[in-house]
Amino acid sequence: MTQIPNLLSASRLVLAPFVFLLLWRREYSIALALLGIAGITDALDGLFARRFGAESRLGAYLDPIADKVLLSGIFLTLALDGAIEPWLAILVLGRDTAILLFAGGAFLFSKSLREFPPSTWGKGSTVAQILFILALVSHLAGIGSEPIVTALKWLTVAATAGSGLDYAWRGLRMVKATT
């Protein structure tokens, strides 16, 4: 029972290449179904980990990695296919790269291992990105609304930029505090 959350997180990593391939082939309805499965596994892994006391160090890393691989890959695939503007994918991928650089810098320059937990801005950005992707793929599958996609796109831009600035500020403060 203790490995179920990790298996659910790992399943998102396994699903990711299939989602990318389906998006690339423009098989949006099937991709949307896999995104629904990925969303369910994301909700269940945290629920099971907390409910059954199955939280683990592996899960603490695996869950966000699975989320980032899936989201980043989707943005990249959609940009390469022309379904979204390249600058939007660059913003999302750039923010994630900056977070990794700041977290790595904090790790390198600190005398002890420091946590770099997600901020409220970061969580909000992830939610906005997920909602945008779901709305866009739904629209591309013929069941969504373009005005909702547009509104969620600009919400994603604002939340992603805001969280990027927040993480940069936190990272700089963390590095400065250790020097």
Strand content: under 5%
User: What value does the Rg take, in angstroms?
Assistant: 17 Å
Mean pLDDT: 87
Question: What overall form do the CA principal axes indicate?
Answer: globular
Number of helices: 6
Distance linking N and C termini: 43 Å
Structural class: mainly alpha
Helix proportion range: over 70%
> Which regions contain 5 or more consecutive residues with pLDDT less than 50?
none
Q: Tell me the total number of β-strands.
A: 0
Order of helices and strands: HHHHHH
* Biggest sheet features: none
Question: How many domain modules?
Answer: 2
Outline the structure in words.
- This protein has 179 residues and is mainly alpha-helical.
- It folds into two domains: 63 residues; 96 residues.
- 83% of the residues lie in helices and 0% in strands.
- It contains six helices and no strands.
- 28% of the residues are buried.
Structure keywords:
2 domains, 179 residues, mainly alpha
SSE topology:
Layout: H1 4-24, H2 28-51, H3 57-81, H4 86-109, H5 120-140, H6 146-178
Helix pairs in contact: 1-2, 1-3, 2-5, 3-4, 4-6, 5-6
Summarize the structure in short.
Helix content is 83%, strand content 0%. The protein has helices at 4-24, 28-51, 57-81, 86-109, 120-140, 146-178.
